[in-house]
Every structure is written in structure tokens, then in C-alpha cells.
Here is the input.
Amino acid sequence: MLVLNPHKSPALSSLFLGRCITGESSHVWLRRAFTQSYCVRIEKFLYRTIVLPNENVATRFLSSVYSRPHPHNFARQAVKSVCLKGDICVSTSAEIISLCSGTLNLALWIGPSDLDKKTNPLLEPLDRLALTSLSLSLSLLFSHTPSISLFTLQVFHSLTHLEILNRWVLWNSTVGLEHLHGLTHLCLHIHTRRTKPGLIVPLLSHPCIRVLVFRISEGVNAVQAFLESNLLSDFRIVLLSQDLASQGDVGREDISSFWTGAEKIVDRRRVDQGTSFITSMI
Here is the structure.
């Protein structure tokens, strides 16, 4: 049963007042009220996940939201997942992140030409988000130095799911990943000749990590031998071939499906205890 209560909805209250003024019949008023309420629900559903592939589409998205009577309230309530890609400018990305302040899942896959780390406009709006899932290149936020620590930025504190696109993580540092105590799902690159085994150990010792995805550009046998020879075999490790990732086979515009695929592999291993499955691929 659908119950329309004009006293609990500003939109319906407006329609109800209009009916009283115009003398509109009940069935006509109800049809209009139902249509408007339905459209609002559908619109919020459509805006729940936003994928913006370039600067042109991103600016059109902003124009669409700003054309509304209460754009900030609408974006905060409706938008929960955002994927920014391609040539979207840092300034545009920062404006979208600031506008969509209720975002929980964010993928920052941009290669901007206007990035200035000294006055980086991304930092402030990112730190105001209560993200649970984030995928990005650290180069958007940090200069490449051995002293990087993700814990210094508030945005990393609330995360449960984190994907770092940079290949150099685990070459010389863990970038403070072991101090992000809320993490349950982590995705990093691994290379047998560059990754330092000792830097993987604290990640496997992390008290909350349930899924650890390693992207690989080498043969799976070589990676398996690397992990086993360094006593790093663990049922939580899932290997992801770069070939599969580049073909889009893991839902690269849907972060949740990417993690769900890895979770299913780990859950199967948990049931079949005592078996090594570190060569499984998403």
C-alpha cells in the first residue's frame, strides 16, 4: 500500500495546498502527487552511482545538479558512489567531491594537467567525506617520497576498502597502511623483483584485513613461487592479472562488484580449510 502524507513531505504539502486553492478533485491531485513522488524516487536512484568519464561530462553533471532548487541537499542525499575518470580537472573534481558530500564510495581515476600539490584543492573536500571505499593514485595527494603516511589524512581513517593504483607501494614503504585499523579490504600492485617481502608481513598481520588483492603483471607461477619462498602464503590473498583488469572483466566502473568477486574467492577458501589457493584469479 502506498500512503501519501502531505504533512511529512514538502513536495506533497505544496501539491496539497495547490489542490485546496484550485479546487482540484481528489483523484487528479492524488495522480499528480503520486507521479511527482515517484519521479523524485527514480531520480535519486539514478543519481546514486555517478560515473563521469571526462571533463565535458563532469561539467554537464555539475550544471544538472546546480539547476535544482537545493543542489547541495540533493547531491548530499542522492549521490553515494562517484567515479571520476580521464581528463577531469582537479578543480572540477574537487567541486564535485565537495558538492556530493554524502559520498561513501569514491574512485579517483583521473590524470589531470592542473595538479598543484602545494595548493591541492582535493585535500579539504576529501577530508570532509566519511568514505568507506576509495580507489586512487597516491600521486594525486602526495609527492613521491619515502616518508608518505596515509594516516596523516583524515579521509583514510574511515575506510574499510582501499585500492592504491601506484605500482611503487611496497617497494620501500608500506605508506602507513598497517596503521589504518579500519581496513578490511586492500588492493595493491606486487612485483617479484621490486616488492620487498618484509613489507607484506605487517599487512598479513593487520588485525582486520579479510581480503588482500594483489595486481600482477608477471606470470602467476612466478608470483606464487615468490610468495611461497618468502612464507607469505595466505588464504586471504587473491591475485588479479593486469590483462583481466585492462579488459574490464572485474567491473572497473563498479567498485563494489570488484570487491564482491574477491570476497567470494576468500570465502570459498575459508570453508575449505587447510588448502592453499594463492594462485586463484578474479
Summary: Strands lie at 49-52, 81-86, 105-110, 133-136, 161-164, 185-189, 211-216, 237-241. Confidence is low (pLDDT under 50) at residues 1-24, 244-252.
